[in-house]
Amino acid sequence: MVPVSYYLILSGILFTIGTVGILVRRNALVIFMSIEVMLNAVNLTFLAAGRYLNSLDGQVIVLLVLTVAAAEVAVGLALIVAIFRSRGTTDVDEVNLLKW
Amino acid sequence: MELALFLSVGAIAILGAVGVVTLRNAVHSALSLITNMVALAVLFLMLNAQFVAIVQIIVYAGAVMVLFLFVIMLLGEKAQESRERLPGQRVFAIALGALLLAEIIYVAQPNLLPGLPGKATTDMVAQGGNVQLVGRLLLSDYVFPFELTSVLLLVAIVGAVVLAKRKL
Is residue B32 part of a domain? Predict the structure, then answer.
């Protein structure tokens, strides 16, 4: 069996890549995809910990996270479409009406 | 054998995630995100989470990514990136990411998980069936969060319709 710390380190790497993606990219859609990468990394942590501790609770929590992620994608993409309609861009640097 | 499978699938997952961040075209990013999700589904199978692995492929690689591709196609070519406004943003981001990764690797030790081992050993799950056991847990101990997700999904549907509609 693969040691649990390998899984934790792999999900840490994936989470870091997602974070860097959010900080570096300016296309709102790609930022959204980076958030999905981070959510998936956290799911991997839950499952690895659940397997290591012989517990199924991690799998149930992953199912709940999946539901939240699906709802988030639906609302977020609708927001991006609405912003694109009113501003004509999905670049987060261009959407700065609230900036002081 | 299992370690070799873990390393190769993990490498595919990391490559997919790097592709999401680095590829210029949003469609290419979406495709490499699908690669990442399928690789993670294989890892979920290795962790004895068969039901979650299948749901991952159906919901994420299927439904969510189709939604993403629809929006990318809908917004079209205008969704391009401007040039960097904050000088040195990329360098700072990568430095902070390296710091975060160092912290995560520092704390990712097995004794990070101090809980007592539960009853769901591999044999017990193989005998009872993964889907049955997860379903039973979802409808007994976790029934309140499970019911809350229905409210959440309803709110998400209403929100998406309200936001996407031109005029109410």
Answer: yes
Q: The complex's ipTM?
A: 0.90
Residue-number span of the structural domain to which A23 is assigned: 4-87
Give the nearest partner residue to B137 out of A5, A25, A57, using CB atoms: A57
Q: What is the pTM of this model?
A: 0.90
Check the CA dihedral B46-B7-B68-A60 and report its sign. positive
Please judge whether B160 and A75 are an interchain contact, meaning their C-beta atoms are less than 8 angstroms apart. Answer: yes
Chain B, 125 to 164: residues with Cβ < 8 Å from chain A are: 125, 130, 133-134, 137-138, 141-142, 145-146, 149, 152-153, 155-157, 159-161, 163-164
Q: How far is A39 from chain B (nearest CA, A)?
A: 11
Q: Let me know if residue B162 belongs to a domain.
A: yes
Mean pLDDT of residues grouped by 10 in chain B (168 residues)?
Answer: 92 95 90 94 92 92 90 74 73 92 84 73 77 89 92 93 79
Strands (E), chain B: none
In a domain, B103, yes or no: no
Contacts of B74 in chain A (CB under 8 A): 81
Domain count, chain B: 2
CATH number for the domain that contains residue A66:
1.10.287.3510
**Token match 């999900």: residue?**
A11
Residue B126: other Cβ atoms inside 10 A: 10
Same-domain pairing of B19 and B76: yes
Smallest Cβ distance to B78: which of A8, A55, A88? A88
B84 in Cβ contact with B60 (< 8 Å):
no
Identify whether residues B127 and B71 lie together within a single domain. Answer: no
CB under 8 Å to B88, separation ≥6 — which residues?
A: none
- Dihedrals phi, psi of B43, to nearest 5 degrees: -65, -40
- Domain-embedded: residue B105: no
